[in-house]
Design brief:
Helix 3 packs across helix 4. A hairpin with a 4-residue loop joins strand 8 and strand 9. By secondary structure, this protein is an alpha/beta fold. The longest helix has 17 residues. Strands 9-8-7-10-6-1-4-5-11 form a nine-stranded mixed β-sheet, sandwiched between helices. A two-stranded antiparallel sheet has the order 2-3. The chain has one domain: HUPs (Rossmann fold). Helix content is 27%, strand content 24%.
Length: 266
């Protein structure tokens, strides 16, 4: 069995500059980290690897510095790592990003299962997993909180939807986007760091994709555009109130009502 896990390097700070021309984040030289949700995707894939004896490959798309999180994935136990990196992929929106990832997975596949995290902390769209699955033409499930069973033909998962919990049986090949509830991620191993220090990372560029049409990638392949990005305003002002419970409750009620945070019903 072959499993692919998709991870991403995201800014480790909110002090990130925005390119005034493209409207995209300037990632070069910015303090970065492994996307928190992807730690749960890695843990899910690693548990399946241990249980099934699967071969696990980590994929990430980004600039050369994104190799750092692939090294971290090696320290956690993946078998192979792929960096999808080409300037022609720069400025991609969700659709173009998903297409590039699907092309890379196809180039290195086939895979029985693809695992992603719920979303990334820099984009927060929670759409890449489903779009990758659509481009691959495979079944998929989002908001997965547990894997309840695995057979040679497929797997059974529980999904936590807004109004209900759903149990699904997915035939292989399939993709799942997991939530934090799937299990606590393990820590990277220092012994494994030493053992994998010289392990190769495969780099895929546009020339390595089956679809070599440049217009399908990066900004050229992105039907959406970021019009404006700006940091939230910081308000450090505060008030200190004193009094008994009744007077403070009354004051808090009027404070919230005056600012339209409360409204009468009926």
């Amino acid at each position: 069995m072959k499993i692919a896990v998709c991870i991403k390097q995201v800014p480790g700070t909110t002090a990130v500059e925005v390119d005034p021309v493209t409207g995209t984040l300037k990632r070069d030289g910015v303090e970065s980290k492994l996307n928190p949700y992807d730690l749960y995707a890695l843990e899910t894939a690693l548990r399946l690897k241990e249980k099934l004896g699967a071969e696990l490959t980590a994929f990430t798309m980004g600039p050369p510095q994104a190799e750092d999180i692939l090294r971290e994935a090696y320290m956690m136990g993946v078998d192979a790592a792929v960096l999808i990196s080409d300037r022609k992929f720069g400025g991609a929106d969700v659709l173009a990003t998903s297409y590039a990832i699907s092309q890379a997975i196809t180039a290195q596949g086939p895979f029985d299962l693809v695992v992603t995290g719920r979303q990334t902390t820099d984009g927060d769209t929670a759409q890449v997993g489903s779009e990758v699955a659509e481009f691959l033409g495979i079944t998929h499930a989002a908001s997965v909180t547990s894997i309840d069973g695995v057979t040679p033909a497929g797997l059974t998962v529980t999904c936590d939807l807004p109004l209900q919990r759903m149990t699904l049986r997915l035939p292989f090949p399939a993709l799942i986007a997991v939530e934090k509830a799937v299990g606590e991620p393990r820590l990277p191993s220092y012994k494994r760091k030493l053992a994998t220090a010289g392990k190769p990372i495969t780099v895929l560029a546009l020339k390595d994709m089956a679809d070599g049409d440049e217009s399908h990638y990066g900004q050229s392949g992105s039907p959406t555009r970021v019009v404006r990005i700006f940091p939230p305003e910081a308000d450090t002002g505060h008030e200190h109130w004193e009094g008994d419970g009744t007077s403070l409750a009354d004051r808090l009620y009027h404070f919230l009502a005056d600012r339209k945070f409360l409204q009468r019903i009926g």
